[in-house]
Amino acid sequence: MALAILSRSLLPRCALQFSSPSTFISKSHYASVFPTRPFPVAAGLSSFAHKPQRSTFRNVSSTALASQTSLSVQSLSTKEPVVSVEWLHANLKEPDVKVLDASWYMPAEQRNAFQEYQVAHIPGALFFDIEGISDRRTDLPHMLPSEEAFAAAASALGIENKDGIVVYDGKGIFCAARVWWMFRVFGHDKIWVLDGGLPKWRASGYDVESSASSDAILKSSAASDAIEQVYKGQRVGPVTFLTNFQPHLVWSREQVQKNIEEKTYQHIDARPKARFDGVVPEPRKGMRGGHIPGSKCIPFPQMLDSSQTLLPADQLQKTFEKEGVSLNEPIIASCGTGVTACILALGLHRLGKRDVPVYDGSWSEWAMNPDLPAVTSVQE
User: Fold this and answer.
1) What is d(CA 166, CA 168) in angstroms, rounded to the nearest whole number?
2) How far apart, in whole angstroms, are the C-alpha atoms of residue 132 and residue 288?
3) Cβ density class 13-30: b for 16+ within 10 Å, e for less
4) pTM for the whole structure
């Protein structure tokens, strides 16, 4: 098991897949995602009733990000969700900075994220397997794991609560936002997305490593193995990362259903408009098209500029206002499988809305249940 990732990297690309087989499927995904377990968590863990706050925002530009360069990771503000490539380059060798390559691609893209990580990655970065570090009790793709499982995986990667984490991906800003959200769900706010990701790092002339060390490969494999062990009820350790679950940042299907009636939260969907309208097929076979009643479409690329960096606050504000989304009211985000919804949450975080939940199951869970309502452009 310890060399699982290494073995997969030697197979032909067409045979490589990172999705792990489900060990068992629960009738209600979120009813069992966070059961009470005898697991050490940081002080202050509780399930609390969250009251949305009205918020204001700062105007943040690339110039402001550039001024971060002289700051240590302990001095960085978590109010800003991204860091510049200049900052990371200046702080790359700091012992309390951990870098994660969280690249992941849609099945139709026929790209293998781990092979690409081995060919080129930011020096010292470890590979974070989004498919591997996921809930093994559901057939839904890359769902949020349990607290115990996530703590085991983060610990296997050598991450501690004192660390500042920078996460990036191979597209610019894509699935890195998902990992940013995951760590925040489990109480770790000292995490930032690399603005522009690996493409901007390379375009800026910074070096990449063209091979992964045996230690990096073993850690990445150990993280996925630790998840498997937890779900099999086996002991893992040592634990260096303690969780502090933030329930207000993740929504279940039941909460979304309730919101359709109560309309307490504005629901935004990050999928392309054609998928939202149900006029093109979903990427996954057998999945109906359309959207959740009452939701609005804000495709995730509208959060980014042409270089795949996060837009300044004033432009982000205009995007949301154009679609009739009020920044003074609570917002819930969804997408296809809970990945690109996190890019919407990233943009809203820059606008001062740091309590935006993501519907983890998103359209993949909703659409596969024929009893749940769906709307298409023909019906509207």
Assistant:
1) 7
2) 26
3) eeebebebeeeeeeeebb
4) 0.82
